[in-house]
Amino acid sequence: MADTLRPLTHTPALATTRRATAAHLVRPARVLVVFGKEWDRGAFAPQFAAGEIELTFEGFDLFRFPGNARLLAFDAWRFVDRICAKYAGRVDAVLSNNEQFGALLAAVIAQRLGLPGNDPRAVVLAHHKLACREAQRRIAADAVPRFAPLGFALDDPRAHDARALQAAVAASDLAWPLFVKPIKATFSVLARRVDSAQELARHLRFGAFERRIIRRLVQPYAQIAAQVAPGLADPAGMLLETPIAGHQVNVDGYVFGGDVRIVGMTDALTYPNEANGAQHFLRFAYPSRIAADVRARIERLTRLLLAELGFVHGFFNAEFFVRPDGRVQYIEVNPRLASQLADLYRWVDGRDVYRMLVALARGRDPETVERLAPAAGAAASFVWRKFDGTGAERLPTRADLDWLAREHADARLMLYAKRGAALAREYKWLGSHRYAVLNLCALDEARLRERYEAICKRFGWPAAY
């Protein structure tokens, strides 16, 4: 069932203002959001409250019961057919910030409805980590680690057979240690360093139900990919790579009319010690501290990759490593807005990214969106994690949340409490449990840290700035 939000046209004061303002005589844009993200409702709120948009959400929560139970019978093409029949002529824009398969479904739906959108093939190639690595190697081989596909899928019995894994690695001409990750996945699921075939076999050993979930998570993507970009490797497979490391940088931007435009770059800081074979994000900081010449190299590599993928219309989030010697290496590119980071650009630069997102989805130049007055000189998205197999450190009480709203009114907090099988699965798939994310800003970094530490103290959470 669709979840629809409409402008508050019943409010007398607002209605009077609209009658007096020519801009409000224009019908609100009808925006369909496919598989919405947890950040979307709050971020769309200013446009909704101003009567600029009507919002309709289609999809379900992939990671919470009971919504995720629908995944077991979900068919991507039936979903596309149903949505197109339901909304033909009734929406002005289709968009999604969902990286699992929402962004791809939105591209297909927009194409079917004749609305502005990205080429579905470009979205498929960006999501497919093997195909994307091959594109990177074609345009900048020195910016790519050595890599090879494992050769069989995660639900293949050989994936947890150490002898089969050793033979596959030997045939790939790679050597241990390796960094492994799924060909199609999100949130660094199952991505980690492994030092031997035995360790990889343990990492890829799943029960029957987990194997079914893994296959079903990639099935909607596989259904679309088979038609728009046939011949790709099984998205349920694994990619093997020579481990690389460095300072990680996120690049957020969009493509309009084939023109690649950078919104900003954030520094991705990790927890100080590797856990379960991987580094884990601690915070995303803006503005980035990288040097201008490194920024220029990153922008060049971003433009080259998007062109190679045929990425012509839409937001993107690209990730890079900056090595200690200054070399830049690709990690990946995600064909959607990094919704978690939108606040940072709004606070520091006055870039109203969600209004830009709607403008682009309507075929309009996002640069025409009026900038807001900057509210801060530094901003960050902080992430709290556990590494010991247990749940959240402590959940904030109602009094804690009231205090946060009163003392830090601009802060945005997301909680991700899990327990039981869902918690165990998160440790297995990610190597840690992310239980909270907080977006926060301040006049400068010193004051940002003060605010962060005050919130940690109030909530009883560790302060690992």
- CATH fold field value of the largest domain: D-amino Acid Aminotransferase, Chain A, domain 1
User: End-to-end distance, in Å?
Assistant: 42 Å
Total DSSP helices: 15
Name the overall outline.
globular
Quickly name the level 1 CATH class of the largest domain: Alpha Beta
CATH homology superfamily of the largest domain: ATP-grasp fold, B domain
Total number of distinct structural domains: 3
Quick take:
This protein is an alpha+beta fold. The chain has helices at residues 12-20, 40-49, 76-87, 102-113, 120-127, 129-139, 162-172, 197-203, 208-228, 292-309, 342-349, 353-361, 398-407, 420-430, 445-459; strands at residues 3-5, 29-34, 53-58, 93-95, 147-153, 178-182, 192-194, 237-241, 247-256, 259-270, 281-286, 314-322, 328-334, 378-386, 412-415, 433-442.
Overview of the molecule:
α7 packs across α8. The longest helix has 21 residues, at 208-228. The protein has helices spanning 12-20, 40-49, 76-87, 102-113, 120-127, 129-139, 162-172, 197-203, 208-228, 292-309, 342-349, 353-361, 398-407, 420-430, 445-459; strands spanning 3-5, 29-34, 53-58, 93-95, 147-153, 178-182, 192-194, 237-241, 247-256, 259-270, 281-286, 314-322, 328-334, 378-386, 412-415, 433-442. It is globular. It has 465 residues and is of the alpha+beta class.
Annotation keywords:
465 residues, alpha+beta, Rossmann fold, D-amino Acid Aminotransferase, Chain A, domain 1, 3 domains, four-stranded mixed β-sheet, 23% strand, globular
